[in-house]
Amino acid sequence: MFPQPIEKQSAGAQFAYKSLLPVVLLLWLAPLLAVALFSIKPGADFSSGNYWGVPSSFEGLTNYGQVFFNSDMPRYLLNSFMITIPTVIGAVALSSMTGFALGVYKFRANLWIFFLFVAGNFVPFQILMVPVRDLTLSLGLYDTKAGLVLFHVAFQTGFCTLFMRNFIRALPFELIEAARVEGVSEIRIFWYVVLPLMKPALAALSVLIFTFIWNDYFWAIVLTQGPDSQPVTAGITSFNAQFRAAYHMMSAGSIVAALPPVAMFFLMQKHFIAGLTLGAVK
Q1: Residue-range domain boundaries for the chain
Q2: Residue 156: is it exposed, middle or buried by C-beta count within 10 angstroms (0-12/13-18/19+)?
Q3: Gap between the Cα atoms of 255 and 243, Å rounded
Q4: 34 Cβ neighbours under 8 A, 6+ residues apart
C-alpha cells in the first residue's frame, strides 16, 4: 500500500532517483531563480533581449531601492503584517480553546459542533463572495484591515479547530485525569498541562496560517481597495501597473512580497516539522 523507501529499492532505481532529483529540483526552482535574476538586471537588458544572460551591470540595490522608496510597496507590506499577525494569533488562540473543549469533554452535541467547524472548509469561497462583501458593507468594515482580520479569523478557525482537536485527542488523557484528581481547575489544566504539550502543533499551525493569509489574493481584492488597507498580494497589482513593462522592477517587487513567508518557514522550520510528524512514530 505504501511506497517502498528508496534505500530498499534496486541499485538502478536508486541511481535514477539520485540522478533525476537535482533535475526536478532545478525545474521546480527555475521560475523563482528567473525572477531573482531579473530583479538584479538593468532595464536595458530587457530592451536588448538579454533575458537569461549575465547582467550587463548589477542593479540590485537600485531596483530594490526603488521598490522601497519610490512605490507603495512598504505600505502594502505593513498592511499584510497588520492583517496576518492578528489573524494568526486570533485563529490559533480560538482554535486552541475550541480544540481543547471538543477534544477533552464528551457531551452529546460534541460531534455535531465539530462537524459545523469542519463543514465551513468545504464551502467554495466564490459562493460566499457577495454575501460576505454585503456583510462587511453593512457593518462598516469594508475596505478596512480590521474587517479582513475578522473575516480571516472566522474562516481559518474551522481548519485550525480540526487540527487542534485531533492533536489534543492524541495526548495522554491520564495527565488531565491526574490534574483533576489533584483538584486543578479546568482553566489551569488547559494553561499549565495541555498548552505546553501543544507547542509543536501551535508552531506548525502558525506557519501554515501565516502562509495562507499572507498569500491570500481572492479576499484581498474583494474586501479591500487602495493602499490604505490592501495587503501586498493585492497591492502588487498596483505596483505592476506603476512599473508597466519594467520587468526588473516587477521582479524585485515580487521577491520582496514573497520573502516574509519564506523567512517565517525557515525560522520555525524545526518546530514546524516536529508538529507535523509528532505521533508518526512511537
Answers
A1: 1-30, 40-69, 71-276
A2: buried
A3: 15
A4: 52
- The closest of 247, 273, 267 to 43, measured between CA atoms, is 247
Angle between helices 247-267 and 199-214 (to 10 degrees): 170
Query: Measured between alpha carbons, how far apart are the two ends of the chain, in Å?
Result: 21
Question: How far is C-alpha 7 from the geometric centre of its chain's CA atoms?
Answer: 33
pTM across the whole model? 0.85
Give the closest residue to 274 by CA, choosing from 212, 206, 201: 201
C-alpha cell recorded at residue 205: 499551525
14 φ/ψ angles, rounded to the nearest 5 degrees: -65, -40
CATH of domain 71-276: 1.10.3720.10
pLDDT along the chain (282 residues), means of 10: 70 85 90 89 84 85 90 92 96 94 89 87 87 93 94 92 90 90 91 90 90 93 90 87 82 91 83 58 42
Residue linked to cell 524585485 = 252
Helices 110-119 + 73-104 axis angle, to 10: 160
Residues 91, 93: Cα–Cα separation, whole Å? 6
